[in-house]
Amino acid sequence: MSKKPTRALPAMHPGELLREDIIPALDIKVTALARLLRVSRQTLHAILREEAPVSPAMALKLGKLCGNGPRLWVNLQREYDLEKAAKAMKAELKAIPTLKAVA
Q1: What is the CATH number of the domain that holds 58?
Q2: Which pLDDT score is estimated for 103?
Q3: Cβ atoms 24, 16 nearer than 8 A
Q4: pLDDT value at position 102?
Q5: Residue 47, in any domain of the structure
Q6: Is residue 52 part of a domain?
Q7: Of 28, 31, 49, 81, which sits 20 to 30 A from 90 (CA to CA)?
Q8: What angle do CA 61, 63, 66 make, to 5 degrees?
Q9: What is the CA angle 85-47-53, rounded to 5?
Q10: Domains contained in the chain, number
């Protein structure tokens, strides 16, 4: 029985996780969440719209508030940024050869 290759899910912007899962689970308004995080509503809305990244400082705040630590938020942002850059640079990267080490 051969295994089918698994295809990775696209990277998720941290704002999507907040918008789709965390906020509904907490049953909290964005204004109240922004107040608890000690950020402006505009800052939080920009993250929720996926227009702004989650900075390390915001990751610390989200990790503390949600109880899941900052690494989740930093890693989500890093993976999202990396995938976005790879898509934007696809042609450029294709033109760069991969060197093989000689043993």
Answers
A1: 1.10.260.40
A2: 67
A3: no
A4: 72
A5: yes
A6: yes
A7: 49
A8: 105
A9: 35
A10: 1
DSSP for 15-69 reads HHHIIIIIHHHHT--HHHHHHHHTS-HHHHHHHHTTSS---HHHHHHHHHHHTS-
Quote the tokens at residue 27: 């049953």
Question: Distance from first CA to last CA of the chain, Å, rounded?
Answer: 35
The boundaries of the domain holding residue 44 are: 14-93
Q: Does residue 41 form part of some domain?
A: yes
In which region does residue 7 sit, left (phi positive, over 0), alpha (psi from -120 to 50) or beta (all else)?
beta
Which pair of structure tokens corresponds to residue 91?
């042609």
Separation of alpha carbons 86 and 44, rounded Å: 26
Q: Is the pTM of this model over 0.90?
A: no
In a domain, 4, yes or no: no
- Mean pLDDT per 10-residue section of the chain, whose length is 103 residues: 70 97 96 98 98 98 97 98 96 94 74
Specify the amino acid at residue 91: A
